[in-house]
Specification:
single chain; about 400 residues; mainly alpha; Receptor-associated Protein; 3 domains; 3-stranded antiparallel sheet; flat
């Protein structure tokens, strides 16, 4: 987005045009170039309106800032012996993308003003999550920022690995559905109307199912654009309905009631919970605080259960007992949590529980994919075969009559 700034440099005042994600980034980018910013304008709005409007739009949209890459590069520079300010300066100088450069310049300016890194990151909430900021703040108290960044990089790598496995497993079934749908559409829209013309010229009585198939084919041939527009409208309506929080919560509630699938979703949620809690605990964040921070990662049902766990822990109940009582454990995790309590290594044990269940989820996804692929092929084959049989059924009947 383009912004017009009125800036001062020495005794001269001039106008400056900059590209930035929002007004705060435009101001930071101008200040990094040595200007004193007097006003910021964009699309005719005042500065206050720009601040509020862009904050909302940036939160609704998705930032182009690569947090994973930032953590990896900052970790490498800190381990090389650079100070924090020098590392941020180096990252800002080498950055080519405008929005990311503005964010880094904003962080650098805050560090020059004497703010700690965690406070500087809080100035860009659309990029840095409360979990990330809390991890950095805890490392500032203990002096192990490099270790905190390494934990976050490891955590994000493992989470991304599970997500990539799920996405990769869904690619082939999606291709099967698309190809099967196109084949059926070709048969209904092109082949079936050809047969319809042949049967109409012979004035033969067709079976009821064959008549319905031929009518669908004629509809697609004559009203193809209308059918396509209706399909797009229904698809848009369906997406709009499912984007409503109440509808999505109701659907997920029904999905969670499916025995095998619901348990797999529960294990996936618990794996995220344990892994994130483990990272925060190893970063020095208190247990109750960490549990409150990770509650937003869970589905509403588990979120309510976690709230009851937090209340019990505050009253002095052991974490393993509270988690078991409110259904936040399995037969494996409860034993590992008890070991963590005895050894005083709860953070490390939670990360191990998360890794254990990540592997289990990966195995279930692989098994489900191997089962789903042949099922989809059978369904697509049955649909295509049914269309072909219904097209040729009158010919079979005619051949039988001739005999």
């Amino acid at each position: 987005m383009k912004f017009e700034l009125k800036v001062a440099q020495g005794t001269s005042i001039r106008s400056l045009a900059l590209e930035a994600g929002n007004a705060m980034q435009a101001r930071a980018l101008a200040e990094s170039q040595g200007y004193s910013v007097l006003t910021v304008r964009g699309a005719g709005f005042s500065l206050d309106k720009l601040f509020s409007a862009n904050r909302v739009s940036t939160k609704l949209g998705q930032s182009k800032f690569n947090l994973m890459l930032f953590s990896q590069e900052l970790l490498a520079l800190l381990e090389s012996g650079l100070s924090l300010v020098e590392a941020i300066e180096a990252l800002a100088e080498k950055e080519q993308q405008t929005e990311s450069k503005a964010i880094l310049n904003q962080i650098k300016a805050a560090l020059f003003e004497g703010l700690p890194l965690s406070s500087a990151l809080e100035l860009v909430p659309q990029v840095f999550s409360p979990l990330y900021i809390a991890l950095i703040r805890a490392s500032e108290r203990t002096g192990d920022m490099a270790q905190a960044l390494a934990r976050h990089v490891t955590y994000q790598t493992q989470v991304d690995a599970v997500r990539k496995k799920i996405i990769a497993a869904s690619i082939y079934p999606s291709i099967l559905l698309v190809v099967g749908g196109l084949v059926v559409l070709f048969l209904l829209g092109y082949v079936v109307p050809k047969f319809s013309g042949i049967y109409e010229s012979t004035n033969t009585d067709l079976p009821w199912m064959s008549q319905m198939l031929l009518r669908w084919g004629q509809l697609l041939q004559k009203q193809g654009k209308t059918v396509f527009l209706v399909f797009i409208a229904l698809l848009g309506l369906l997406i709009f309905v499912f984007n409503r929080p109440a509808v999505r919560a109701a659907v997920m509630g029904k999905v969670w009631q499916i025995p095998a699938l619901g348990e797999s979703l529960r294990i996936y949620q618990l794996a995220r919970l344990y892994r994130t809690l483990g990272m925060l605990l190893r970063g020095g964040i208190p247990l109750v605080t960490a549990m409150g921070m990770v509650s937003s990662l869970l589905q509403p049902l588990l979120r309510n259960q976690l709230a009851r766990v937090i209340a019990d822990v505050r009253e002095g109940k052991p974490l393993s007992s509270a988690m078991e009582q409110h259904g936040m454990t399995t037969s494996i995790s409860i034993r590992m949590l008890r070991v963590g309590e005895r050894t005083g290594q709860m953070g490390e044990m939670m990360e191990r529980v998360g890794a254990f269940y990540d592997d289990e989820i990966a195995r279930k996804v692989e098994w489900f994919t191997k089962l789903l692929e042949p099922i989809l092929m059978i369904i697509i084959g049955l649909v295509v075969g049914l269309v072909v049989v219904l097209m040729y059924m009158p010919i079979f009947e005619l051949a039988g009559n001739i005999q």
